[in-house]
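Example record used in the benchmark description.
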Amino acid sequence: MRTARRGNTWARVVLVAVGCLTVVFGASPAFVGEGTDESLLAATSGAGMGVLVIVTALLATASRPSRLAWMGLWYLPVFFVLHLVAFRAWVPDLPLLLLTTVTLLAIRPAVFAGAHHRRPAQDSRNGPSPVAAPAATARGSR
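Model output (structure tokens):
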């Protein structure tokens, strides 16, 4: 369990840093140029995307990571691929694409750990779960 937490810590730092870079790059149109309505709209949406990435990264790397947040973070590699194809901006996009892809693949085991070993919830109408029943019977027979 300790190694999973350490893995989540470095992944949290990487993904939050990418989110902060997204905020900075996204908000930059507001500070460069004439300050038109279009540039302010682009800055607002870019900064909002960065904040959303930060919040999602914190959910995906929490002590009980969210699978949905992890899947939602795959938006980043897709975004960087589309940005790379559209603008041919190799320098910021390719390293960020590789960094986010490697990070998401590295934390996958921590996100999906225990998915097959979870006990079903106890139903108050049907009594204890069938998984817990054999253990109780085995203890009672000793």
